[in-house]
Amino acid sequence: AACGTMDFQHRAGGKTGSGGVASESEANRDRRERLRQLALETIDLAKDPYFMKNHLGTYECKLCLTLHNNEGSYLAHTQGKRHQANLARRTARDAKDAPIQPQTERPRVDYKRFVKIGRPGYKVTKQRNSETRQHSLLFQIDYPEIGDGVVPRHRFMSAYEQRLEPPDRNWQYLLFAAEPYETIGFKVPSREVDKSESRFWTHWNRDTKQFFMQFHFKLPDDPTRTQLAPLKPLMAP
């Protein structure tokens, strides 16, 4: 009668090519190798404060007080529960023992708060330079109750920055501001401004509390566009 044979290679729990179940020591060796490879990717031994090579040629973990025959063994150890737990405890203790650094106090900036008292008086004069034939605008803004130490400010604003009306690229806005007055704005033609010294100037008269500003428009490339469009006052909120 034929004798039956047992397939040790493909039995349940068997390891292909081994002829049997992998031993516990082999599993531990595989685990240590995986940990070592992981540590090689994340740890620089030259910068590890707990890694030390002693006079016997073996390696020590100064944190856990363990001995290791080679670097691979030490690297695997650093990924283990014992080393990680000791590392967490050391980090927490160092943070607790560290002296508390005094926080530098930020310099306090006292912002002046003003109650708005309304819009200032103003006067706008359209002019034309007889020599250059450039159009200009002269603004006079009255600030009789201006705050102490406040100097009036101004700026040009494109039609796409404002939110009071639909934007029109043919116009731009000139704003004047000085606390405690409300900001006022004027709608002026969107033409290039000549900012040369003699064509653009401002002056704040502290005695009369009047702010003056005059600017000229550059001459357009098209000689037929020499007329200055009607000025449209626009009050900014």
Please describe the structure with a list of short key phrases separated by commas or semicolons.
4-stranded antiparallel β-sheet, 5-stranded antiparallel β-sheet, alpha+beta, 3 helices, disordered N terminus, 237 residues
Can you characterise this structure?
The protein has helices spanning 24-42, 71-78, 81-97; strands at 51-53, 59-61, 66-68, 121-128, 135-142, 153-158, 171-177, 184-189, 193-194, 200-205, 210-217, 232-234. The protein has 237 residues and is of the alpha+beta class. The chain is elongated. The chain has three helices and twelve strands; from the N terminus they run H-E-E-E-H-H-E-E-E-E-E-E-E-E-E.
Number of strands: 12
Q: What general form does the structure show?
A: elongated
Order of helices and strands: HEEEHHEEEEEEEEE
Question: What does the oligomeric state look like here?
Answer: single chain
Task: Figure out the total of helices.
Answer: 3
* Average pLDDT metric: 80
Low-confidence stretches: 1-8
Estimated share of beta-strand residues: 25-35%
Quote the distance from N terminus to C terminus: 110 Å
Query: Rounded to an integer, what's the Rg over CA atoms?
Result: 42 Å
Largest sheet: 5 strands, antiparallel
How much helicity do the residues have?
Answer: 10-25%
Which structural category do the helix and sheet elements fall into?
alpha+beta
